[in-house]
Every structure is written in structure tokens, then in C-alpha cells.
Hints:
Helices cover 42% and strands 16% of the residues. The radius of gyration is 23 Å and the shape is elongated. The longest helix is centred in the last third of the chain and has 17 residues, at 303-319. It is built from twelve helices and twelve strands. The termini are far apart. Strand 8, helix 11 (257-269) and strand 9 (279-284) form a beta-alpha-beta unit. It has 340 residues and is α/β, with parallel strands linked by helices. Residues 1-6 have low confidence and may be disordered. The strands form two sheets. It has a six-stranded parallel β-sheet with strand order 2-1-3-4-5-11, sandwiched between helices. A six-stranded mixed β-sheet has the order 7-6-8-9-10-12, with helices on both faces.
Amino acid sequence: MGRRRPGAPTLEEVAAHAGVGRGTVSRVINNAAGVKESTRRAVQQAIEELGYVPNLAARSLAGQRADAVALVLTEPDWRQFAEPFFSEIVRSLGDALADTGMQLLLTLVRSDAERQRFLEFARGGRVDGALLVSVHDGDLLPDMLVEAGLPTVLLGRRSGDEYVSYVDADNVGGARSAVSHLLKRGRRAIATITGPLDMHVAQCRLRGYQEALAMAGLRGEPSWVAESDFTEESGRRAMAELIERHPEIDGVIAASDTTAAGALQALRAAGRRVPEDVAVIGFDDFPLAQQTEPRLTTVRQPLEEIGRAMVRLLLEEVEEPAVAWRHVILRTELVVRESA
């Protein structure tokens, strides 16, 4: 149906006319649960009186499909796209879509201008849904897409009370199992290298680390925590800082395999043996984990299963808009190798 014609009513105007918020209008348009019948009637009346027709709804009524799904990478730092995580998730999502006949369109949204441009692109009916990866706290793009009526599924979530559909790994449980493994092997001076703490995934892995220490009667002091941005260089730098703060360190859990690889470099430069002096555990179980020296013990994320689940949720919502947001959390697995 293309762009909104000049002078056509907006979602905000419908909301104001009905005396409700724009989110309520979106839920009525998508036939979502949790809206009072009186409110639903008021919104429907406002839609009729103003002649409001959402682009995506109009396309659906016309029985038209774009047969394309947007994979939206929202990481603002372009260097992150060189990390293994992105290539692995693109592969898993591509495999999951392979037999559906739908195209996977890779889109980078790293600024407000790109965010608005993609929103207009989606409103124009050029894609049937969106899969969002690497969404940081406070990013409004998922809300904007849902309000536009576009089926949307996140990899991970922005916070503990996320209401957009998502698929995630059990990051808290995975980190907790990694620290418990170190504790069982007699390690007591255990540090962690987190991911960016404006991402819920990094907060969850930090919480798992803290919970495991607390269960063992140990305190997770802030000086034993160093933040990284999931890159190898940031892992090397964070590990060097931790060694300087706590020369007695004998174990570390890193928020990604790439970060752990950087930590191994810093330990080697400091003359520390792995695992004899310091045990190291990563997170993800990318091929990189078996290429380091020594090979990394790591927490395996089921990326293929995550990709299949994301595509399944999205296609179900394309076929029939969900009455409620769906949240899927998949189990992780500790893979023990030589580094711990």
C-alpha cells in the first residue's frame, strides 16, 4: 500500500481522538488481549470516524505478502559485526528460513536516522516481519515496529519485563553453572569479564556469576568485575586490569568466547598458566573455542535452536497475529575442555 497519503490520520491522532495511548490503539489493531471492551469500541469508533488504515493492516487485508523477513542488526559499533556471534546467528536464521520460500534481508540500524528509515521501509509493506539482534536497553525500535503492526521477534531482550516477543538463552543459569564448575574444582578467587552492561544479556550473565558465589558463601566484590564489549581486545584489556587488581586470581568467567580468547592472551603475557594458575571459561561455544590454546571450556548457547524458534514465532505471527507476546528461554550447556 506504500507510504501514508498526505493528510491521512496518524496512529497518534487516533489515540488522541479515542482518549487512549498509542500502544492501546496498536493492541486493538492487532486484536491483542488485555484491552477492555469499552476501550476497544472507542478505538474502533475513532478509526472509523478518522478513516485510519494502517499500511500493514491494509496489505494484510489485500492478501499481499512481501515474502521477505528483515534481519535487523542494531549494534551501534560497526566493529561488533566482525565478531563470530553475528556470523553464527545469520547462518542459523538463514538455515531456519531456507525451506520457507522467504528472503532474509540483512539491515543495519545504528542511528536514529537509520531507525526512522527502516520504520518507513517496513510500513511500506516491503517485509512481512522483523528479527532484531543485539538490541540495547532503551532502544525504541521494537516498540515502533510493534505499534506499526509488523510481526517482530527479538534475539534476547532489553530488560526483565520485555513485552515484545523474544527468544533467549538461559544466561543466568549458564553463568551460574560455569562458576559452580570452578568452585567444585577448588577455585576461590574468581573474577568475571562482563559484556556491555547496557545489554540485558550481560546483566544476566553477571547475575549468574554473583548468584553462584553467594550460594558458596562468597562475596562478589565490584573489583572482581571488569566490563568488556564482547571483543577480543576488550577481553585482553579487562583481564590485564583484573590481574593488576587481584594477583591472587585463580579463575575467570568471560561473557563470550571472543572475550575469553583475549583473556588468555593477557594471562600468557603475565606469565600465568591456564588452567594450572588460572582457569578460564567462555560463553557461546563458537568454533573459536576449540581453536584457542588451551581449548576453551565454555557455556554453549543453542544458536541453531534459537534461530529455529525465532523464525517459528515470527511466521506464526505473520499467519495469525498473536493475542499475546511470546517469550521463549532455551537451556544452555557447560562444555568442559582444557582451559578449566
